[in-house]
Amino acid sequence: MKNKLITLMLFTAVAFSLPAAYTQKEASPSEQAGNGSVAMQPAGNFSEKITVILPEIEMDNIGFYEAETRKFEQLTGIQVERIYGSWDDIAEFIMLDLEKNGGSYDVIEFDNAWIARFHQNDWLEPLDRYVTEDIKNGMLPGLIDKFSIDGKLYGITWNNDTRFFMYNQNLLTKAGYDAPPQTWGELAEMSKKIINDGIAPYGYSDSYIQQQSGSNQITFLVYSFGGRLFDNGKPVMAKDPKTKAAFEFLNQAINVDKICDPSALISDYQSVSNMFCMGQTAFVLQAWAGIYEMANNKEFSIITGQVAVGDASIHAAGEVPIVMTLPEAMAIPKTSAHKDAAWKYIEYMSSIEVDKRRCTAIGSLPLWSSLFTDPDLLALYPYWEKFGYQSVYAVGLPDLLWYDEYSEILMRETHKMLNGEITVDECLQAIQSQCEALAASKP
Question: What pTM value is reported for the model?
């Protein structure tokens, strides 16, 4: 969930002066595959109009998306009306329109938490007739998989919000380690050494607050142990031994070994970042990409030059080193009267050429796998190569119609466990029983 802003801004098409480099359009993957060409049209001579509604991205303080939208207009002759604002405001506008079958928008925000609901209500146009194999094979697999359901693709990512394992190399060196941990066991061992030697107060902190970020982090923990929370939408957390192992590790880390900062129970992501940047912790389990830059900015950090990115995320021995991805996609409502034009906009804005320009201009993460090893981008962001290693194992949150209610149950019962009110087994059974009742109450 994004922070709520005050205003919603509406921008209609405006004249935009293009540099010479954009006076001709290079054929896109679908055009090369014979899906039709896009004709150049002079500014103001529009053949069609689409309405696009997407949230603001915090990193875009230079108007990159607005500028590229106007370039798209010049290249295609398709007029674009952009509506953008806070995530909460945009979500409200979209939901109201879809629920009343309004047809106000042609390209909409499609958040990773909406997949089950949108699919059940048959609100979106499948994109398979547009999407080429180049797109499916070229974009990060986790981003394609996250917005696919029942064998069909419904969204193309525009905001790659994948998380990564980072650590403070200086603190590890002081503790006598020349390489970061890879498993939870190694992380616990190193954390104890760092604490016992007085190098830092805690091995790590995390966000286990009773909010969305808390359920995100519990999901990562369970998946990293190879655990399962659901099986085809049915709760199985109380029956899965690997899920139990994850909860036992969490309880041990906070209440027994004290390698995790106990204030994690009330910490949000910013608090986790602040502790790391102040040298209070050695590890960030699932850092958003911007933490690297923040930790190397003397205005916000005292650990500049000490931050490193792991080759792999923390995981239980023998399990896959998953990372969480919480992306946002562009989608086409079934009510759109301009589906082909809407796809051309999505295709252009997510193309590898625009993706590279966006990465260069504002430093947001690539959508295309090859850009993690692009020489030009690595010259700007050398640590992205390791982001690429970790991104291969990106997975998303469970697809549930009642995800918000489940998230509340998960964190409420987890807090009871961490506060010593119930055991691990009682916690998992309580979560499962309440989820089973919730599922039975839904249509």
Answer: 0.84
